[in-house]
Amino acid sequence: MNKRKIIYFARLFFSALVLICSFLAFTNGFYFLAHSFKVQLGANIASLFAAFSVTALAAVLAVLIFTFLFGRFYCSLICPLGILQDFINFLSFKKSKNYKNFYKTRYVIAAVVFAALVCGWAAGFKILDPYTNFGLIASSIFTPFTDYLLAEDETYAYTALTLLISLIPFIILIFLVLFKRRFFCTAICPVGTLLGISSKYGIFRLKINDSCIKCGACFKKCPTGSINIKDKKIDNELCVRCLKCVSVCPKGAISYGVCEKEKEEKKETSFSPNRRNFVIGAALVIAGIAAGAGSAIARGKKFLQDGIRAILPPGAKDYNRFASKCTSCQLCVTVCPSKVIHPRDFSHANIYMDYSKNYCKYDCNKCSSVCPTGALKPLSLQEKQHTRLGLAKIDRDICIACGICTFNCPTKALSLNVSGEERSLVYNATVCIGCGSCEVNCPHKAVKIVPIVKQTKIGYN
After folding, report:
1. Which of 49, 61, 129, 173 is the most exposed place for a label (fewest CB within 10 A)?
2. Torsion angle of alpha carbons 248, 225, 65, 118, nearest 10°?
């Protein structure tokens, strides 16, 4: 086996390892792997605008600089959705063909998505971000399966509607891969577009030298359609560095190194198709930015009305902020040990908490610690234990003052007042954190946790 094939299979091994670990991150037994999603570029970009941090900025710059130097290795080594597409493509038998360069399409999509994100609206990321879509796929297919195999005490039961919402991205992804392999990465993904721009003008690129015999072996294996056999050129903006072309070339004509700038021939006419395309592309990008910003401001203000929508996970702060920052990757849903965090459905536009079957564990802060976008502010266990998520509402007509809720309340917000034969339930709202323990344990369903406008810190001994 030659050196080129060894490098290719090493890339395959690393990619397979990343994909396996990414799926395992959506199981309770491998909760620690969930932190790996914080290296995802899309997650860190979203985090910059949700809760700015030097760490997120450093991660974004590191990926972009690495891509500028060496190309889009991120797409074939780090991005789980990209690797998943390679796996689906491996199972298909579709022959390769020339792909049109949809540069206008991807630039407009990226402009709309990023402009909306800058203006505080993550709607585009909920639909097109690769790590978010992988989260939907993993949580809807892999997590329920592993929970069943591991016989978890608490599992989240997907309804037909929520399962359908989660499966839609997977079905679309399969269709796109069978249609044009990595079409999502080269024409739709906003993160891929950003990486492509950085790679296009990068230093180290793939190139085809004069020893090429135009056999077409590389072209047949290229998942992005970035190889032009006729002109012996590789589009490094689209190339995701899968290295298939390098491994199959019988002459070793595809090399990796510093590319010299191509010399453009002088034309007598002043008309330039490239100049026209640049002007059209720039106009479309500007229009996309305006559309994204306008959508974020207009639709965002209309949708994010001040009000109480649902009980939110710890660290969400308030509904307006959470709705504009959360991309619904469902990582918090899968790591929640009590399964009270639910994915968005037709009744809820965003992730929410439900205490109908269980309550938020007092000694757990997993959800906020794994959130890769900053939609859930990271909370220490002590901070989480002092964060109010909701308030208890007691139906005095049903309550018999049995005292069961008082035994389970972690903050002692509920107590019994006994005077002779008279018993009454006393509720101290000032120390209630809305964990839902009382609601779940009440045998008569006399206690209900209701949402609040904003999560606040409380003090108690």
Report:
1. 61
2. -150
Dig out the tokens for 357 from the structure: 């079957």
Q: What is the mean pLDDT of residues 48-60?
A: 81
Rounded Cα distance, 297 and 116, in Å:
8
| Amino acid at site 123 | A
Give the separation between CA 71 and CA 238, rounded to whole angstroms.
10
Read off the amino acid at residue 292: G
- Alpha carbon of 338 to those of 316, 450, 455: distances in Å? 18, 19, 20
DSSP H helices in 80-213: 80-91, 103-118, 123-128, 130-137, 143-149, 160-180, 183, 190-200
The model's pLDDT over 153-168, given as tens digits with 9 standing for 90+, comes to 555 555 666 667 667 7
Backbone torsions φ then ψ of 273, nearest 5 degrees: -60, -35
Separation of alpha carbons 152 and 27, rounded Å? 10
What confidence tens digit (pLDDT) does each residue in 203-243 have?
888 888 888 888 888 888 888 888 888 888 888 899 999 88
